[in-house]
């Protein structure tokens, strides 16, 4: 896939232009470099800092702008302002802070980086910044490290393999660098990785050697050529400030470095990469690395803004997770930074493995391997934290409505655990384990966050298979060699599943797994044994659509009536109740909606002919299709027909890219009153449906709303909204636009009113009011009025449906 992109005409034209620029300006590059080197030597020789100037510099250092205090003491930094170690540490701290703040600004609900400043007993330390479970970024890590000590033989050998003349003895070293990996939530937002570092070693004879390294690369899950060209253009701009040969040279180096040999593919669309840069001078090399590091925001943030609101579904999410698995595979097998960290005594494994995403398929064996190397037994403990899974549709929190278990209860896989209410749907959470409940992390009516612990289980030891654990005697680096052949591993299954298989003499390797990490679930076995009909929808191991849960009947003790007492004065007090569930969702949605500049347009519609048509149709609709025919399906279909003429009203506005996104499907949202409040699910693909099909879909949504079983899919990807305030007697109103759409209409009550007929006589007419609100940033009054007139025409002359409908 990525190889094809690299051969695309648009991208090749961009690269060819860069190379031609280098060829035509090669002489000028050499001359410029010579002048710069000479200037640097002269300025370095002439410059001496005074105590007064040093005091001024001390005052200018503002550490509050960084994510934390520096690793090196502030006195040491301020007393050595021109030392490359000082300059590099302050530079990477600024890059870290700028990038973290830029990413935080993209989060819609105020997610912030958590900061961990750590020190290393061998010398130095680092600042680890991680944002996790955000609305835009599933996991974002931006780390800096400033470490010193003695290079172990393994690290020396690795550097010698790259051509460094270091000898065989351990030697003092200093290293400072910034590294980052960003894993977005939306599959259409690419992952970015960058790393820029400075290294010093002192040889046995006292000779000091230094060099810089680094690079930035992009890994999209779905290729977008404009994104890739923008990304490479920004990198080229940073390189060209210093040497026109840098970009083509370091791009080629990057393509080679990120090529996965045993798969025959590249990790992404490349970028730039370089190792061991030690010319033309330390000053020039530092300036070049600084330019590259500072270009990250300009190269990446526009891509985030362009795609963070793109619509996606289960298939796109599955593809994203598959590609993430390849990403992690590269980091654990090939990446030099990972290997160097593992070789270094006192290494901090949390920082080394910062690049790993929260979710990726088939990673359990590698995770167990790495956990064993750092002497933890997390996977072998009996206590397992059950985390609330991603329900979808960007839902980040839910309210615990009811627990079906309590501490001490013994449950099996698929048993109901609790019912939760999101801002869009009720969902019943089911167990993925057999075991005993130890602890509930939330009380009823408390908010639980997606990805955080919900409850703790005591499970059997073999809930993780023995084959998932690698022997301590095996060497870590040997185990992380490239995989040339498929691994033969034991089937993953819980003891309960193995027990069923044993009873039926079933070879589990013949069963198709559907669980996480390739685990076989109880439903997989039952379907394989045909104990449940083939094609039966098996509940997800962690969530299923809410079913009718049988609860024990409660016997109410009836006491004798209490004697009548004289009323007493009662002290009235105020009651504070936090927003939860749909009320909290309304707060968030309305806050976003009212950022949209609304304008209103109102009219009235003569429904007389439609009243007559419906009267003739409703009996057959009820008897033949069991549908109580209302006016709403006609209004929805009329809106879809009018949208074919005015597609801009079926669009969304991307403010970050200043662009309009036209939707080819008409998923019309309808407001439905439920016992839990007002919700707005949508009827999918109205443009392809008849009046009766729309009426049937509307009936299903209303029934699900009354039962509280509307799911995330019922709310996904709405494009246009209609609300019926007429059922409560309303006429005109000012509806509020749903975020992600540009128009909403509210229909009023149909009333019998006097009107003038064609000959100026007074006649009885059935009149309905319509109120529209539109996003005035992209919709003008003429367009809104023209759409409304066409919609009105269809309703006032309903037989036109026959001509216009497909």
Automatic annotation (TrEMBL):
<dbReference type="GO" id="GO:0004109">
    <property type="term" value="F:coproporphyrinogen oxidase activity"/>
</dbReference>
<comment type="pathway">
    <text>Porphyrin-containing compound metabolism; protoporphyrin-IX biosynthesis; protoporphyrinogen-IX from coproporphyrinogen-III (O2 route): step 1/1.</text>
</comment>
<comment type="similarity">
    <text>Belongs to the 2-oxoacid dehydrogenase family.</text>
</comment>
<keyword id="KW-0809">Transit peptide</keyword>
<dbReference type="GO" id="GO:0006782">
    <property type="term" value="P:protoporphyrinogen IX biosynthetic process"/>
</dbReference>
<keyword id="KW-0350">Heme biosynthesis</keyword>
<dbReference type="GO" id="GO:0031405">
    <property type="term" value="F:lipoic acid binding"/>
</dbReference>
<keyword id="KW-0450">Lipoyl</keyword>
<dbReference type="Pfam" id="PF02817">
    <property type="entry name" value="E3_binding"/>
</dbReference>
<dbReference type="InterPro" id="IPR004167">
    <property type="entry name" value="PSBD"/>
</dbReference>
<protein>
    <recommendedName>
        <fullName>Dihydrolipoamide acetyltransferase component of pyruvate dehydrogenase complex</fullName>
        <ecNumber>2.3.1.-</ecNumber>
    </recommendedName>
</protein>
<dbReference type="InterPro" id="IPR036625">
    <property type="entry name" value="E3-bd_dom_sf"/>
</dbReference>
<keyword id="KW-0012">Acyltransferase</keyword>
<dbReference type="GO" id="GO:0043754">
    <property type="term" value="F:dihydrolipoamide branched chain acyltransferase activity"/>
</dbReference>
<dbReference type="GO" id="GO:0005829">
    <property type="term" value="C:cytosol"/>
</dbReference>
<dbReference type="InterPro" id="IPR003016">
    <property type="entry name" value="2-oxoA_DH_lipoyl-BS"/>
</dbReference>
<dbReference type="InterPro" id="IPR023213">
    <property type="entry name" value="CAT-like_dom_sf"/>
</dbReference>
<keyword id="KW-0560">Oxidoreductase</keyword>
<dbReference type="Pfam" id="PF00198">
    <property type="entry name" value="2-oxoacid_dh"/>
</dbReference>
<comment type="similarity">
    <text>Belongs to the aerobic coproporphyrinogen-III oxidase family.</text>
</comment>
<dbReference type="GO" id="GO:0016407">
    <property type="term" value="F:acetyltransferase activity"/>
</dbReference>
<feature type="domain" description="Peripheral subunit-binding (PSBD)">
    <location>
        <begin position="492"/>
        <end position="529"/>
    </location>
</feature>
<dbReference type="GO" id="GO:0005759">
    <property type="term" value="C:mitochondrial matrix"/>
</dbReference>
<keyword id="KW-0808">Transferase</keyword>
<dbReference type="InterPro" id="IPR001260">
    <property type="entry name" value="Coprogen_oxidase_aer"/>
</dbReference>
<dbReference type="Pfam" id="PF00364">
    <property type="entry name" value="Biotin_lipoyl"/>
</dbReference>
<comment type="subunit">
    <text>Homodimer.</text>
</comment>
<dbReference type="InterPro" id="IPR011053">
    <property type="entry name" value="Single_hybrid_motif"/>
</dbReference>
<feature type="domain" description="Lipoyl-binding">
    <location>
        <begin position="383"/>
        <end position="458"/>
    </location>
</feature>
<dbReference type="InterPro" id="IPR018375">
    <property type="entry name" value="Coprogen_oxidase_CS"/>
</dbReference>
<dbReference type="InterPro" id="IPR036406">
    <property type="entry name" value="Coprogen_oxidase_aer_sf"/>
</dbReference>
<dbReference type="InterPro" id="IPR000089">
    <property type="entry name" value="Biotin_lipoyl"/>
</dbReference>
<dbReference type="Pfam" id="PF01218">
    <property type="entry name" value="Coprogen_oxidas"/>
</dbReference>
<keyword id="KW-0627">Porphyrin biosynthesis</keyword>
<dbReference type="InterPro" id="IPR001078">
    <property type="entry name" value="2-oxoacid_DH_actylTfrase"/>
</dbReference>
<keyword id="KW-0496">Mitochondrion</keyword>
<dbReference type="InterPro" id="IPR050743">
    <property type="entry name" value="2-oxoacid_DH_E2_comp"/>
</dbReference>
């Amino acid at each position: 896939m990525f190889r094809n992109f690299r051969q695309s005409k648009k991208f090749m034209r961009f690269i060819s232009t860069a190379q031609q620029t280098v060829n035509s300006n090669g002489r000028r590059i050499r001359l410029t470099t010579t002048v710069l080197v000479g200037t640097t030597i002269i300025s370095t020789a002439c410059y001496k800092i005074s105590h007064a100037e040093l005091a001024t510099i001390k005052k200018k250092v503002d550490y509050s702008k960084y994510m934390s205090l520096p690793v090196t003491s502030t006195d040491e930094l301020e007393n050595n302002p021109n030392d490359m170690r000082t300059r590099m540490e302050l530079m990477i701290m600024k890059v870290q802070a700028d990038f973290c703040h830029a990413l935080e600004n993209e989060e819609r609900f105020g997610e912030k980086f958590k900061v961990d400043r750590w020190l290393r007993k061998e010398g130095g330390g680092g600042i680890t910044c991680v944002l996790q479970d955000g609305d835009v970024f599933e996991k974002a890590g931006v780390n800096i490290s400033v470490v010193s000590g003695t290079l172990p033989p393994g690290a020396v050998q690795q550097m010698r393999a790259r051509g460094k003349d270091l000898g065989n003895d351990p030697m003092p070293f200093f290293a400072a660098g910034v590294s980052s990996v960003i894993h977005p939530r939306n599959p259409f937002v690419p992952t970015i990785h960058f790393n820029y570092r400075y290294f010093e070693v002192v040889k046995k004879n006292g000779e000091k050697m230094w060099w810089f390294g680094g690079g930035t690369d992009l890994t999209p899950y779905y290729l977008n050529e404009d994104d890739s060209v923008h990304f490479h253009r920004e990198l080229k701009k940073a390189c060209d400030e210093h040497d026109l040969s840098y970009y083509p040279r370091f791009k080629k180096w990057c393509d080679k470095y990120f090529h996965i040999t045993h798969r025959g593919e590249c990790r992404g669309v490349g970028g730039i990469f370089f190792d061991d840069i030690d010319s033309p001078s330390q000053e020039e090399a530092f300036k070049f690395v600084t330019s590259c590091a500072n270009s990250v925001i300009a190269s990446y943030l526009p891509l985030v803004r362009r795609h963070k609101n793109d619509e996606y579904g289960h298939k796109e999410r599955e593809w994203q997770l598959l590609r993430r698995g390849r990403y992690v595979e590269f980091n654990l097998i090939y990446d030099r930074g990972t290997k160097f960290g593992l070789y270094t005594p006192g290494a901090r494994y949390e920082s080394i493995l910062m690049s790993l995403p929260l979710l990726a398929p088939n990673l359990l064996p590698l995770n167990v391997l790495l956990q064993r190397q750092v002497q933890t037994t997390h996977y072998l403990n009996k206590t397992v934290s059950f985390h609330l899974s991603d329900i979808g549709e960007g839902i980040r929190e839910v309210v615990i409505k009811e627990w079906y278990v309590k501490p001490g209860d013994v449950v099996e896989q698929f048993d109901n655990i609790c019912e939760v209410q999101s801002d869009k749907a009720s969902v019943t959470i089911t167990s993925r384990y057999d075991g005993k409940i130890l602890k509930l992390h939330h009380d009823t009516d408390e908010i639980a966050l997606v990805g955080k612990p919900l409850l703790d289980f005591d499970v059997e030891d073999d809930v993780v298979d023995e084959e998932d654990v690698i022997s301590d005697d095996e060497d870590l680096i040997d185990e992380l060699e490239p995989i040339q052949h498929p691994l033969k591993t034991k089937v993953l299954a819980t003891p309960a599943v193995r027990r069923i298989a044993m009873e039926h003499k079933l070879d589990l390797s013949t069963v198709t797994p559907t669980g996480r990490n390739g685990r076989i679930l109880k439903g997989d076995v039952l379907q394989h044994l045909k104990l449940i009909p083939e094609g039966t929808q098996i509940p997800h191991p962690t969530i299923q659509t809410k079913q009718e849960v049988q609860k024990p009947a409660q016997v109410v003790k009836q006491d004798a009536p209490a004697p009548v007492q004289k009323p007493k004065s009662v002290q009235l007090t105020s009651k504070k109740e936090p927003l939860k569930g749909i009320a909290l969702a309304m707060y968030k949605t309305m806050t976003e909606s009212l950022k949209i500049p609304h304008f209103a347009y109102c009219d009235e519609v003569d429904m007389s002919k439609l009243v007559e048509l419906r009267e003739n149709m409703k009996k057959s609709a009820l008897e033949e299709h069991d549908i109580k025919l209302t006016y709403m399906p006609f209004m929805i279909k009329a809106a879809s027909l009018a949208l074919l003429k005015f597609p801009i009203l079926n669009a969304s506005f991307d403010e970050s890219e200043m662009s309009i996104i036209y939707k080819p499907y008409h998923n019309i949202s309808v407001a439905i009153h439920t016992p839990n409040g007002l919700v707005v699910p949508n009827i999918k693909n109205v443009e392809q449906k008849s009046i009766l099909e729309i009426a049937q879909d509307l009936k299903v949504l209303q029934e699900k709303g009354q039962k509280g079983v509307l799911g995330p899919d019922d709310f996904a990807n709405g494009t246009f909204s209609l609300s019926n305030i007429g059922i409560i007697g309303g006429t005109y109103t000012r509806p509020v636009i749903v975020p992600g759409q540009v128009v909403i209409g509210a229909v009023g009550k149909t009333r019998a009113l006097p009107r003038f007929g064609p000959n100026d006589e007074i006649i009885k007419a059935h009149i309905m009011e319509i109120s529209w609100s539109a996003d005035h940033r992209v919709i003008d009054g003429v367009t809104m009025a023209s759409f409304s007139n066409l919609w009105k025409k269809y309703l006032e002359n309903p037989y036109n449906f026959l001509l216009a409908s497909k």
